[in-house]
Design goal:
heterodimer; A: mainly alpha; 11 helices; globular; B: alpha+beta; 2 domains; 8 strands
Amino acid sequence: MNEIYDKLIIRIFFTIFLCAIIAMYKYLHIILYPSAKLQLFKTFKPTNNNSDTIHLFSRIIGIGLLLSEFHFYMSDGIAIAVLDFSIRAFLAVVTYLASLYILESIALYNFEYADEILKRKNYSYALICFTNAIVASYLIKTIIKVSNNSLVIFIFLWLFAIVIIGLTIKAYPMLSKLPFNKLVVQKNMAIALSYMGFIWGWGIIIASSINGDITNIKLYAIYIILKILLSIIVFPLFRFGIIWIFSLKDDFQANSESADVGYGVFEGTIYFTSCFLISIITEQVHFGTFYPIF
Amino acid sequence: MNKIPLYILSIFIYLGLTKSFSLSETGTEYIKSRFFLPSIFNGAPVAVILTDYYYAGFFIKTYFHKYRVVRGVGNIENVTARVSSDFYQQNLNNIGMSIFRRTGAANMESTLPMPPGTVYLNDTAYGTWIVKNGIKQWEFYRAYRELPEKLFWGDFRPTEHFYKTLKDNYEQNSQPFYGEHNEFGTNGTITKQVDLHPSSVHKKEKVNWKLFLKKYIHAENSKDE
């Protein structure tokens, strides 16, 4: 019975410890986002500013998702377990914040948090930040899993993933018919939903591409690039297939001043579904002995 | 920006990169026709025996040959090579045959399919003709006593008559020679004895559809089976 009590107390201790890690995140957040001081250090009322609520809660979901990948290894004692967890969690939190900073600098370089959230209560901006936060945490979670406690591999993969997701963000305006900056200024939800589907979809593809065993770093990098290239090749086929099967008519008018939310849902859904299906083609086709192995 | 050129470019980059790092592309030789054999198998004397052939792929097939390379001394070497469709078809009847040989002394090369070990016959550096039961037959010297096994001869030992028929066929017909009584080649009696038939093509197990469908109605998880 003693052991059962002890295990329960240890689990409660770790729960408190995890809360401490989240508190550490809160303070680290201020370093990169000084403008968020008000959001984090004053009593937050979720109903005051809904876009601010989405913005803050996206960070909270992100950090929760990120920390869910960590493990406590108790074999060497509780002190080592806590220290090991702290070091890895610190690195993860720092890279998560840096990722957020980079992704938002790429996607929302024309916009400021203070202007869009605090003054204009821009839902579109908040949802784009939400998308970035979730995709950043999901990618880092995958990188932590793949790097297998190696700091060098962790940094390499993080840089690699950030470059690819950065390029994906840059490619979004090329693929979408919706004018990004114009619609964000208009607080249009269509752009946010379309962006969400696209970035989450490609986030899944990038995460599934890097999710493999690393034996040779050069071959591994080539392997990731090949998977992403294959995804780029298959993506339009799925997109076309879904549109054709469901007889979806692209009725977006390029000259119109605004965009309907329905069009954002249409684009976002097609991007997201296509990317999900792509992961079957790139990851789940097992050739086995269909081809000879040398 | 027009997306189609970018899309086509990405297909080419994908194909180029995949080709550069594909083990089946970089790890195996490609033999387009019999004329490419001398550049792949160096040294002399050497006998290259086709031991197996198979193909892989569904829409676009890749053809493979397996060879046993027998040199006078030293270990045998097993080589897998990709071959062209034409070369594959040309050699369907040549399992167990020597499809390339280079003699040691004169450095003569031949790609005409002949029984394995033709390159060593009548070469006094490797053996001699001895009379057994009134028939002259080839016997390797003690130093090369393992050659008949390496050449898939089994209990077969070429007679002088066999050698003469082989030589006449080579000089006059320039046609593949499968033995006096079809001992060699895919359907050869000796080849069948040493079990050198194509594996993947002819021995592929037929799908048991009943068994395949049965696994879906099992209550327990049969994933590990």
